[in-house]
Amino acid sequence: MKRLALAATAVAVLVTGCATTHSPDTPSANTSTSTSTSTQPDRAARGTAGNTLLVADFGADTVSFVDPDKGVTDSVTVGRAPYGLVVGDDGRAWVATAEGVAVVDTAARERVALVPYTTKHLGPVTDGEYRGGGMGIALAPDGRHVYVGVNVPDGNGTLETLDTRTLDVTDTTGVGRRPFDVDVSRDGREVYATDHDSFDVTVLDTGSGDTRRIEVAPYGTEGGLGSWLKPHYAAVRPSDGKLLLPFEGEKLVVVDPETGRSRIERMTANTHQHGVTVTPDGTLFVVGTGPIDPAEDEGPSLTVRTKDGREKVIPLDGPHEDVAVSADGRTAYVTGGFTRDGYWDGITVVDLDSGDTRRLTAGERPLGIAVLESGNERP
């Protein structure tokens, strides 16, 4: 009943997507739960040695290189309001900005190209939650193509396919509204755009170019554009290729992209959820951004969910948006940029064994994040 009431309320206040009634561009200041917070780098940063993080500075026109112990070490101008990013085995980063897809050589730490979108009606180049341009972005397993979800203000979005050798946009495919996230199947034959404002996932067959829509709406679609109860980010489960989409710290929707059927598993964080990632062993990490209804919901958190469904919920200080995990699986990095009010300029470093957390000043409203391989780091 609580969720239906919230959907109706969202329509009444005429929000679109996840925004509050404030401007989205104005900053404001079996389960076990960890509550300890460490300010000592040697405790909360176990497993960070040698890691370099790359974050998209949604509040600026840069990406930042971040040492998890020291903060920002370098930045590169990429284009207006960068959102998602992905890094290939060759060390090139692909960044979805409002202007186009930026290509960054992470070893030289320089932008080597900016590929403009072919999608029309993107409006003026600007920033903020509803700006036109790239949002979710993913790389094919063979590294030959990049797929970027492009938001078209007040309309359905597109999925642009970019050839990573020629840097040409080779195809533009219609998807749903506001493609927050893009993922690719393990064999590269399908691409999945998570369409926030249309309650669905668009599946692209990369061979034929055909698409199909899978509705993902465990609370229904009541409230339409004003509903809070929409899909945001997804992860492809390594074991079987199914899509994992968390909702509200209450429901994990497991979608079979082949059949379009889904089932729901219980979650326990009881908070509005955004960014996700999954590690090769099947552990799912989900960012809880905070309550929709402070009287009923819990605050921000990071859910760590094992492949057998056991959850550890680690409280976070303030809203966050996306998450990456160190190669050794011992440390998570959660960006504080956030697409709504309450964002902050930094990353929370989480020790996954102890649950200790440490806030690190880094970037400007950082959203997308990746952990660079050691071979791609500059001395």
Structure description:
This protein is mainly β and 379 residues long. It has two helices and 29 strands. The relative contact order is 0.18. A hairpin with a 3-residue loop joins β6 and β7 (100-105). The termini are far apart. The strands form seven sheets. Strands 1-24-23-22-21 form a five-stranded mixed beta sheet, with no helix packed on it. A four-stranded antiparallel beta sheet has the order 4-3-2-29, with no helix packed on it. A four-stranded antiparallel beta sheet has the order 5-6-7-8, with no helix packed on it.
Quickly list its features.
379 residues; mainly beta; 5-stranded mixed beta sheet; 4-stranded antiparallel beta sheet; 2 helices; disordered N terminus
Summarize the structure.
The chain has 379 residues and is mainly β. Helices cover 4% and strands 42% of the residues. It contains two helices and 29 strands.
Number of strands: 29
Averaged pLDDT, please? 89
Helical fraction equals under 10%
Structural class: mainly beta
Reading side by side through the largest sheet, how are the strands ordered? 1-24-23-22-21
Give a quick account of the main beta sheet: strands, pairing sense, barrel closure.
5 strands, mixed
Shape from CA axes?
globular
Radius of gyration: 19 Å
Query: Which regions have little confidence, pLDDT < 50, spanning 5+ residues?
Result: 1-5, 7-17, 19-47
